[in-house]
Amino acid sequence: MKLNELLDGHTHQVLQGSIGTRISGGMHFDAHRMTRGSLYIAVPGHREGGPEAITRAVELGAVAVLVEGTGVVVPDGVCVVGVPDIRVAASAVAARYYGEPGRAMDMVAITGTNGKTSVSYMVESVLRIAEGARVGVIGTAGSRIGDDPVPMPHSVLTTPESPDLQYLLGHMRDRRTGSVVLEATSMALLTHRVDDAHIDVGVFTNLTQDHLDDHGTMESYRNAKLRLFQGLCRHAVVNADDPVSAWIQRLMPGAGAVTTYALDTDADVDYRATDLSMDATGSRFTLHHQGRTYPASIPVPGRFSVSNALATVAACHALGHDLGALVAALRLMPPVPGRLERHVTPLGTSVIVDYAHSPDSLEKVLTAIRGFATAHVITVFGCGGDRDTTKRAAMGEIAGRLSDHCVLTSDNPRTEDPGAILDQITPGIAPTGTPFERIPDRSQAIRFALAAAGPDDVVLVAGKGSEPHQIIGEELLPFSDIAVVRQLADELSLSRSGAAGAIPR
Question: Fewest CB atoms less than 10 Å from the CB: which of 11, 87, 333, 357?
Answer without folding.
Answer: 11
